Amino acid sequence: MTTALVPGSFDPPTNGHVDVIARCAGIFDKVLVAVIENPSKSPLFSTEERIALLKETCSPYENVEFGSFAGLLVDYAEHVGVDVIVKGLRAITDFDYEIQMAQMNRNLSGIMTLFVATKPEYGYLSSSLVKEVGRYGGSIDSLVPENVATALKERFND
Fold first, then answer.
1. Using CB atoms within 10 A of its CB, is residue 58 exposed (0-12), middle (13-18) or buried (19+)?
2. Burial of 100 by CB count in 10 Å (0-12 exposed, 13-18 middle, 19+ buried)?
3. 30 among known catalytic residues
């Protein structure tokens, strides 16, 4: 049984994130989606809220589970016993950063990282851009799953 770890901040989850998770669910026996808790950032949604949004969005995929972690990704990966880390790539700029991380993670733990290119229609999406568009009242309905769009609209109306 092969277990893949798909880490990310997912603040908020976008259609690009869901695309990568869905494709992993079709490839690997088990997929663990892990929300990164970064104390140096001020996320729009709490870790628990991000996990809840992901659970609802990914409910069709029976082999997908959810968790969260702080600290080094490879420490978490070793702790939960995954076989491979999967990272989504939007553009060459993502690759430049992620290849260094993948090589460091391999050096530290021996765990391989696989890259999955997002579908072209999601290549421009980032959580930061989605938040900015939503904050200023722009349409986000085609950028994020329906439950995430609702949560964003509620958050920005508060």
1. buried
2. exposed
3. no
Q: Which of 17, 23, 50, 131 is catalytic?
A: 17
For residue 146, give the H/E element and its range: helix 146-157
pTM of the model: 0.93
pLDDT in tens, 13-30: 999 999 999 999 999 999
Reply yes or no on whether the pLDDT at 118 is more than 80. Answer: yes
**Per the residue annotation, which of 90, 106, 126, 155 is the catalytic one?**
90
pLDDT over 80 (residue 146): yes
Catalytic-residue membership of 127: yes
| 41 included as an active-site residue | yes
Task: Decide if 90 is catalytic.
Answer: yes
Q: Which domains does the chain have, with CATH numbers?
A: 3-123 (3.40.50.620)
Of 9, 50, 127, 131, the catalytic one is 127
- The two tokens of residue 42 are 């001020």
